[in-house]
Design brief:
Helix content is 36%, strand content 16%. By secondary structure, the chain is an alpha/beta fold. It folds into two domains: 174 residues, CDP-glycerol glycerophosphotransferase, N-terminal domain (Rossmann fold); 172 residues, Rossmann fold (3-Layer(aba) Sandwich), CATH 3.40.50. The chain has a seven-stranded parallel β-sheet, sandwiched between helices. Helix 5 links the parallel strand 6 and strand 7. The protein starts with a strand and ends in a 20-residue tail after the last helix.
Length: 377
């Protein structure tokens, strides 16, 4: 089977999937990188230009169009519409890889880019083998609201690398006497809500809980959050901006990861990383990754970001139930290492493609490429 993936850049969130697809297809996989060199956002700071399957668009349009026409399967990410237009003309299998369309609610309907996508979809894609890979638990609901991809949505996401370790290798263990280490990491900006950690620390302090909070990152809100932490003598350490490798090392020294973003968080790969490094998540139910990755009370907790009390109670429950915390950390670790990772995602995408090409009912029932539910927010 020949597979081609078209997106603006090959980055650390998808290179693992690309590597595995190259292996599964026996080398019949190509990744077309459409962004200009100066525009490329190589998340994680790595250079993947030596990958044998990578093709930079530049001026090779005839060669690119030939690859798009000949491929049995095409995955289309954030890229110019011309590549989507060219593929649709072939009538062959295609997946659109997308976060939710309505991150900001109905305001997004005023976006020229979304309007162009909608117009193209409704004029050219109906009745054709065009499916959606949903990189958000809310994508299928958004698509359905806009009469797109109905009964054609499958779970997807971002798949950042996590270390190949056993849970027993993680240094952070708990006992009845030590403090619980709580982690928050991200940009200090409004829709990631770092200020929620101040409210949490105040509550933990008032309850007499033994805790230590670490916050990693920079951003416009950091001075305000740090000032309030100092004024209230809260046990919060501000780490600043760190490399991804260092962040994952720190994750392995923490018990609980707080993921406080609102609906503007399209996915949130930091949740994958924290769970994959043995943190138990307490995650906002509005962020794109949460409802795919977190199973309530099994591998973590979700909370309503508009209800701070819900957030506080979930964290306190974990602090007061150490055995449950250890079990949920193990389950969070297993969720990433056994299911939600690049290896399984690539394997499942290949199997889903085989099923569709052979007119079979899709056989993937859990994890990446299983049917996506229509969550609305």
């Amino acid at each position: 089977m020949k597979i081609v993936f078209v997106s603006v850049v090959l980055n650390s969130h998808q290179v693992g999937v690309a590597d595995r697809l190259f292996d599964i297809t026996g080398g019949n996989f190509r990744f077309i990188e459409t962004g200009q060199t100066q525009e490329l956002d190589k998340k994680g700071g790595e250079d993947f230009s030596s990958r044998p399957y990578l093709i930079k668009a530049n001026d090779k349009k005839e060669e690119l169009y030939r690859l798009i026409e000949e491929a049995d399967v095409m995955v289309y990410g954030a890229a110019p519409l011309e590549y989507l237009r060219h593929r649709v003309k072939t009538g062959k299998l295609m997946f659109l890889y997308s976060e939710r369309w309505l991150k900001r609610g109905l305001k997004n309907l005023l976006s020229p880019r979304l309007l162009r996508q909608q117009l193209f979809y409704h004029l050219h894609c109906h009745g054709k083998p065009v499916y959606a890979l949903c990189a958000s638990a809310f994508a299928a609901g958004d698509f359905n609201m806009l009469f797109a991809f109905r009964n054609k949505c499958f779970k997807w996401g971002y798949f950042p690398p996590t270390p190949e370790i056993n849970f027993n290798e993680i240094s952070c263990q708990t006992n009845e006497d030590n403090e619980i280490n709580i982690l928050w990491t991200g940009r200090f900006i409004s829709w990631k809500h770092p200020e929620m950690m101040i409210g949490l620390a105040k509550r933990l302090q008032s309850e007499g809980c033994k805790y230590r909070i670490s916050m990693i990152g920079e951003g416009e809100l950091r001075p305000l959050v740090e000032k309030e932490a100092l004024e209230n003598n809260l046990n919060i350490k501000f780490e600043g901006a760190l490399s991804n490798r260092k962040v994952q090392e720190i994750m392995r020294r923490h018990h609980i990861f707080c993921f406080t973003s609102d609906r503007q968080e399209g996915w949130g790969a930091v949740l994958n990383e924290a769970m994959g490094n043995g943190c138990c998540p307490v995650a906002s139910s509005e962020a794109g990754a949460t409802l795919f990755l977190v199973k309530e009370g099994q591998n973590g907790y979700t909370f309503n970001p508009n209800n701070p009390e819900d957030f506080h109670q979930k964290v306190i429950s974990l602090i007061n139930n150490r055995e449950q915390l250890i079990e949920m950390r193990k389950n969070a670790f297993a969720t990433i290492h056994d299911l939600w990772n690049a290896r399984i995602a690539a394997q499942n995408l290949y199997l889903l493609s085989v099923d569709i090409l052979n007119n079979n009912i899709p056989s993937i029932t859990v994890g990446p490429c299983s049917k996506a539910d229509k969550f609305n927010l």
